[in-house]
Specification:
- The strands form 2 sheets. Strands 5-3-2-6-9-10-1-11 form an 8-stranded parallel β-sheet, sandwiched between helices.
- It is built from 7 helices and 11 strands.
- The longest helix is centred in the N-terminal third of the chain and has 18 residues.
- The protein is of the alpha/beta class.
- It has one domain: Rossmann fold (3-Layer(aba) Sandwich).
Length: about 250
């Protein structure tokens, strides 16, 4: 595990974009799993701008969804799918065949999980997995207590996730369950990047880096990944001393 700290959110975002671009240049048909959410937003803006300016070709890549709110339509502006469509897929002019997302409105969610598992397996696994960290330490919707050996699954959301998740929606939503890739997907990915920004994430980052490795704080399992990076800005790293500054 490597931990890099950058002076601000903008520099952090530029360096995360660099890592994604490096992956695609090394493997043009890379399988990418990119998280939705506030933290990676500027990373994606930087990435798509550079793709246009530098002629970086994403046309052979495969994109798989990390997670989705169960019961939220794909076209709802608070959905993970809508976020990725707006900030990544549309700006990169990807074809629909390159994109594989959970349908959280499906009547058979177990089948949705099985389909995603088969897609990832059929593509030879995930090359780069970019994840954020929840206030409770979740990764994707792998909530505290999630099984380390789980692939895609449906899970009851923690109260913290239900509350914090409301910020993505224009009106109050019933957020009770999520559908998500599992921690086993994360541990099997060839490269994992966990990013965090802002003082509000400083406490959970301290637990993630200095506390015991436990699924009670799912993000801690990243420390056991053989090729993982935790990329932070100064605000998120404020309670953790002695880290590499980028």
């Amino acid at each position: 595990m490597k931990v890099n700290v950058y002076p601000d959110y903008e520099t952090l975002s530029q360096n995360v974009a660099d890592e994604i671009i490096r992956c695609v240049r090394n493997k043009p048909d890379a399988v990418l799993c990119l998280a939705a959410g506030d933290t990676p937003r500027l990373t994606y803006e930087t990435l798509t701008a550079r793709a246009t300016k530098e002629g970086i070709d994403f046309s052979h890549c495969t994109f798989v969804g990390l997670d989705e709110w169960v019961g939220v339509p794909l076209d709802n502006e608070g959905s993970c799918s809508w976020f990725l469509q707006r900030h990544i897929f549309t700006p990169l002019s990807l074809s629909r065949s390159q994109i594989h997302l959970f349908d959280a409105m499906a009547s058979d969610l177990e089948n949705e999980c099985n389909k995603m598992n088969e897609i990832i397996s059929g593509k030879g696994g995930i090359d780069l997995m970019l994840v954020g960290i929840g206030m409770n330490g979740h990764i994707g919707f792998n909530e505290p207590g999630a099984l380390i050996d789980s692939y895609a699954h449906v899970i009851d959301l923690d109260n913290t996730t239900r509350t914090v998740g409301q910020k993505y929606f224009r009106q109050q939503m019933s957020l009770t369950r999520g559908i998500t890739l599992g921690l086993k997907h994360l541990m099997e990915a060839r490269q994992v990047i966990l990013i965090a920004s802002g003082e509000r994430k400083a406490e959970i980052i301290k637990h993630t880096l200095r506390g015991p490795v436990t699924t009670k704080v799912p993000a801690t399992v990243v420390r056991n990944h053989p090729n993982s990076m935790i990329m932070l800005d100064e605000a998120a790293a404020r309670w953790v001393k002695g880290l590499t500054r980028g």
